[in-house]
Write a structure and sequence with these properties.
Chain lengths: 202, 249
């Protein structure tokens, strides 16, 4: 709805709504605003400067920036409120994306494992450091090397683990469970009605 | 007795360093074997060779009457080698690569089955057997160490393999969980599964293993015998550097 709206008022309402949801979700509002607005909407604004100069109209560019920022904010709040393992499941509705989604999930899981590893390394360093930390550059260099080695190792073990359970890259078939419940259908229906209403009342 | 695995003079070297030296053995169908040896004696390597992960070894390995080597393994793989042989890693954390317990257990059956209802049924059966049916929707990253071990075993059992190769499955477990694993593995042995398990836990050895393969610090098989026979030979265990003089088995 935000993407097709040309109403500043509606965008303001949408912005407030996302902020309220974020506040209820106990998200860090400041971090949300900075991460949503500091890069992509700003770049969108810069890109639209020539358009503004040519058309001598600021409004379309402002609307575009607002839409971009609100959509990013909405996405961030959705991700914040979603269980990571279910985040991508709905996309499996589109058959061809199954392998892609599975790879994304695998990547997310590996990132988590590596984040754990990095935290452990940093903690291990902290408990063995007395006073001021010396040779920081050497430590960073060796940490990067260790992480690179662990990344390769994790990938290898994961692949072997897949293979020992019968996986073959030539025989990729992943079936995900995707069940649409009545409540989800009602929500989609409601969104469609709201979208139509927004266009009518504009 | 038919041998599931037969090894003849199996040697494995990495950069001219010997990791396993001239191993000769026969693994009988339906029996439980424990691999015992000090750290670095070659237990994991032998298990990886048996499960087809390491193929560039010297010597001869047979799975029933089929030779296992680099050239023949593709054919074995296509014929469902991993439907017959399941391997559980020492590093459970890395073995589990899906985000939910359900997807992790279902991964194996999904390689061999198309019917999602049958897959769900199989997952539920295995999860109930291991007491993790309440965790199926859980995020794997949030599980405890013991739960992860159960999920790892469930993911192997889901394919219903006839041979289970388990690399230190009771590592980092509390005594109660070790006993639980021993009971589960004993039940699996009783229904005819062949089990090869490496362990440092004598409790598991006593409860489960019919035979013990004792590895020496210089990567040789020191002795293969009944578990009772080996555990009663204190000098042999000292020679294998599994225990010291003060240890009482």
């Amino acid at each position: 709805m935000v993407s097709v709206s040309d109403s500043i008022l509606f965008l303001a309402v949408a912005f407030t709504f996302v902020l309220v949801v974020a506040a209820i979700s106990k998200a860090d509002i400041k971090a949300l605003i900075v991460s949503s607005w500091a890069f992509v909407p700003l770049v969108t604004f810069i890109i639209s400067i020539p358009y503004m100069l040519i058309t001598k109209s600021v409004m379309p560019a402002v609307l575009q920036v607002l839409k971009t920022g609100i959509i990013i904010m909405t996405g961030e709040v959705v991700i914040y409120n979603s269980r990571i393992d279910r985040l991508f499941k709905p996309f499996s509705f589109f058959g061809g994306l199954k392998e892609f989604i599975w790879l994304v999930e695998l990547t997310i899981r590996n990132i988590f494992v590596l984040l754990h590893t990095i935290t452990d390394i940093l903690f291990a360093k902290k408990i063995r450091t007395v006073g001021v930390s010396r040779n920081r550059l050497d430590f960073v260099k060796s940490m990067i090397r260790a992480i690179a080695q662990k990344t390769i190792y994790i990938s290898e073990v994961t692949y072997v683990s897949m293979k020992t359970r019968g996986f073959s890259s030539g025989n990729v078939k992943f079936v995900y469970r995707f069940k649409v419940t009545i409540s989800e259908l009602l929500l989609v229906f409601l969104l469609i009605i709201m979208s139509i209403m927004e266009r009518i009342l504009k | 007795m038919s041998a599931v695995f037969t090894g003849k003079n199996i040697t494995y070297r990495v950069n001219n360093k010997t990791i396993l030296d001239s191993a000769n053995f026969e693994i009988e169908k339906g029996k439980a074997y424990a691999l015992v040896g000090c750290n670095g004696s070659g237990k994991t390597t032998l298990m990886k060779i048996l499960s087809g992960i390491i193929l560039d070894f010297e010597g001869e390995l047979y799975f029933y009457d089929k030779k296992v080597d680099k050239t023949s393994f593709d054919e074995l793989f296509k014929n469902g080698f991993y439907k017959k042989v399941g391997y559980m890693f020492q590093e459970t954390e890395l073995q589990l690569f899906n985000l939910t317990v359900f997807d992790e257990i279902a991964f194996g059956p999904r390689q061999f089955m198309n019917d999602e209802r049958k897959i769900q049924k199989r997952v539920l059966e295995v999860a109930k057997f291991l007491g993790i049916d309440n965790l199926l929707e859980s995020d794997i990253l949030t599980l405890s160490g013991g739960e992860k071990k159960r999920v790892a075993l469930a993911s192997i059992l889901a394919n219903n393999p006839e041979v289970l190769i388990l690399d230190e499955p009771t590592n980092d477990l509390d005594p109660r969980s070790i006993r639980f694993f021993a009971t589960i593995l004993k039940q699996l042995k009783d229904v005819g599964k062949t089990i090869i398990v490496s362990t440092h836990h004598f409790d598991l050895l006593f409860r489960l293993a019919d035979y013990t393969i004792l590895l020496s610090p210089d990567h040789r098989i020191l002795k293969i015998g009944t578990t009772k026979e080996i555990l009663e030979d204190k000098n042999l265990l000292i020679e294998a550097e599994v225990i010291d003089e003060e240890f009482e088995v």
